[in-house]
Amino acid sequence: MRIGFVLLILTTLVSFSNTSRVSFGLRNDYDVRLGGEGDEVQIKADIKLRDHGARPTYTVATRPTTVYRPRSQVSFQSARRRSLQHSQNEKVEWDEVEVLGPEIEDRHTLAQLARMTGNAYAMPGRKNWYDIDNEWNTSFPIGWDPDSPGFRGHVFVSPDASIAILSIKGTTITGPTSKLDKFNDNLLFSCCCARVDISWVFSTVCGCYRCGWKCDSSCLSDAIAQDSLFYSVGVDLINNLTSMYPDADIWLVGHSLGGALASLLGTTFGFPAVAFESPGERMAASRLHLPIPDSDSTSSIPWHAPVTHVYHTADPIAQGACTGPLSACAQAGYALETRCHLGGSVVFDSVSKLGWRVDILKHTVKEVVGMLEREGIEWDEHGREVPPRKAEDECIDCYKWEFDKFDHLDQAASSESSCK
């Protein structure tokens, strides 16, 4: 099944500081096909050299980034399954690796990554395709078969296979992916199977509710392991990308649900990830039983260092404030109740600095790109163009709920709960 082309060139220009520049232009034509059976994703690329005439280039700032990376994905997934199925710990060996990652303190770079993220929602030539530069008008699409209902995005790869950037699509309200988008949203970001209270008007996504404010934690983990298909597809996809480009530095970017997936996959593989306006995915990582390095590591870089969340204060979804039966999210059938993020967060105070009102309409990529491209805004008292990255250390999700191993009734795949 033929799914697209990518045309770009990448050259790294090293400066005398820790920051480098990655220049993108036009060189190779990648003829990409996606195939495979079941959960197996296979990608094949035929590279055809094009003429090397003079073309404009565009630069994105990069910097050396230290990450924790599991030494073996086999052992990582084995440890995850043992924790999920038997509540037992299994040792995972970690390597501390220095890679070339995005310069998150550069506003221009964040704006370009946001535009790239926006392009995960579109195909080249469509009106909603973001014009980053002429060389970015075609790309390497994933999952864009007209009949495909699931995981979508684009991959940008250098001709020398030194950097590959996976941009993951977030939620769309209508279209072929909307049903599974909503299912993944409600499974990953709700406290208990998208059950808010007795006024909730749509069916839940699993049967883990146990009366009152009780929720079966074992049931929740089973539900995510069985049904959160987008994470599983992402794991298979990245395994294939790393096989295709074994020496590449891989970056993950995404918006909303796509940003959460970028974060979860970045944590899984130890790849730098930038997530824009993502709901809190820390609880989803716990329910997925993602192994993490020892908390007493002597490294100055925390285990979740590759993940950077970028969001602003006028977006209720990223802040976990679009909740309750009267909220716009609930009215549309979404239970986006979590607010705690992995890694560090760069939070732009758009309410104070730009006078924006808190509104779900401010959640869109368009608003994020517009905010990041505004000139002359000092986002903190030190005059920075980008606020400092901070960990959300004291954040708590779903504090009203009691999560425990109650009477596990093997209802994870059902929308029916044992208590109405």
From TrEMBL:
What InterPro entries does the annotation carry? AB_hydrolase_fold, ATG15_Lipase, Fungal_lipase-type
* Pfam families given in the database record: Lipase_3
Catalytic activity field: a triacylglycerol + H2O = a diacylglycerol + a fatty acid + H(+)
Show which residues constitute the signal peptide: 1-19
GO function term, MF aspect, one? phospholipase activity
Give every Fungal lipase-type domain span: 237-267
> In which broad location class does this protein mainly occur, judging by the first location in its UniProt entry?
membrane
Topology versus the membrane: Single-pass type II membrane protein
**Keyword field:** Autophagy, Endosome, Glycoprotein, Hydrolase, Lipid degradation, Lipid metabolism, Membrane, Signal, Signal-anchor, Transmembrane, Transmembrane helix
A Gene Ontology term for the protein's cellular component: vacuolar lumen
Q: Which SUPFAM superfamilies match?
A: alpha/beta-Hydrolases
Report the superkingdom from the record. Eukaryota
Subcellular location(s): the record lists: Endosome, Multivesicular body membrane; Prevacuolar compartment membrane
Q: What class of enzyme is it?
A: hydrolase
An example GO BP is: piecemeal microautophagy of the nucleus
What is this enzyme's EC? Answer: 3.1.1.3
Please give the function described in this protein's UniProt entry. Answer: Lipase which is essential for lysis of subvacuolar cytoplasm to vacuole targeted bodies and intravacuolar autophagic bodies. Involved in the lysis of intravacuolar multivesicular body (MVB) vesicles. The intravacuolar membrane disintegration by ATG15 is critical to life span extension.
The entry describes its oligomerization and partners as: Binds to both phosphatidylinositol (PI) and phosphatidylinositol 3,5-bisphosphate (PIP2).
Q: Which family does it belong to?
A: Belongs to the AB hydrolase superfamily. Lipase family.
Would you tell me the protein name for this molecule?
triacylglycerol lipase
Please name the source species. Answer: Neolentinus lepideus HHB14362 ss-1
